[in-house]
Design brief:
The chain is mainly α. It is 65% helix and 0% strand. It is globular, with a radius of gyration of 18 Å.
């Protein structure tokens, strides 16, 4: 599935490409009030994750994912290779672990929706808000650092394959938020697929040379039409998620 609340491209003050990509990918508002407090130990662990990933992403962007070894990343982060694998089980996770922030995003939106608001209405509102702030997870972001990261991602088959695993966990989390069972799983699968396709279409247009501002109106229209289709399908015979 993403959180500092800054707009993409705002950077993290480090001046590094990897740091800027990190802020862009993570720069998503949860829309559910203040973030939960974390312990000092957990905070240090998160900082270590980020430092390792920043070093890896910078190298991947410079040389290509397949031309950088895990040993080189470990050396750049000043840790041993076994230590690196304790944080990141697979090389692909070095580039994609921040998408883990998005794994339960749809589930959190559904769980934190306003009283009387339906799950679909909450998801629609959340996605449109993401388009408005040019959140990278919606695909509607033309910040150079985010574009570079997306080109790395979509141009590397192993990263694309790993990303589908993250999306599978997002689907599972959403299904649980919708009550579980086959009906909830079917609904979650449709929602996650729609969000993925919308984001990919926005990214495709921007990668072809359009600006985020130029794509915005079409992205909003596509999202509205997609949620209409979802509602029609999921409300059939009064079942699904109204």
């Amino acid at each position: 599935m993403v959180m500092s609340g800054e707009k993409a491209g705002g950077g993290n003050g480090s001046g590094s490409v990897a740091g800027a990509v990190g802020e862009g990918v993570r720069g998503q508002e949860s829309g559910q009030g203040e973030p939960p407090r974390v312990s000092l130990r957990e905070r240090k662990k998160q900082l270590t994750y980020r430092a390792i990933s920043d070093a890896a992403i910078a190298m991947f962007l410079e040389r290509g994912f397949d031309k950088v070894s895990v040993a080189e990343v470990a050396a750049a982060a000043d840790i041993s290779k076994p230590t690196l694998f304790r944080y990141f089980p697979a090389k692909e996770d070095l580039a994609l672990h921040r998408f883990a922030d998005h794994e339960d995003e749809a589930a959190r939106v559904v769980g934190g929706r306003e009283p009387g608001e339906s799950p679909l209405d909450a998801l629609r509102r959340h996605f449109l808000a993401g388009l408005d702030r040019r959140d990278p997870v919606t695909g509607l972001c033309d910040a150079p650092q985010v574009l570079a990261f997306h080109r790395l991602l979509y141009g590397t088959p192993s990263l694309v394959a790993r990303l589908y695993a993250y999306q599978g966990r997002s689907e599972a989390a959403l299904a649980r938020a919708l009550g579980g069972g086959v009906t909830a799983r079917l609904a979650a699968g449709q929602v996650v697929a729609v969000l993925r396709i919308l984001a990919e279409e926005n990214w495709r247009r921007i990668d072809a040379g359009e600006s985020a501002d130029a794509v915005y109106a079409g992205a909003v229209q596509a999202a509205e039409e997609a949620f209409v289709q979802l509602r029609r399908g999921l409300e059939t015979e009064g079942r699904g998620i109204p």
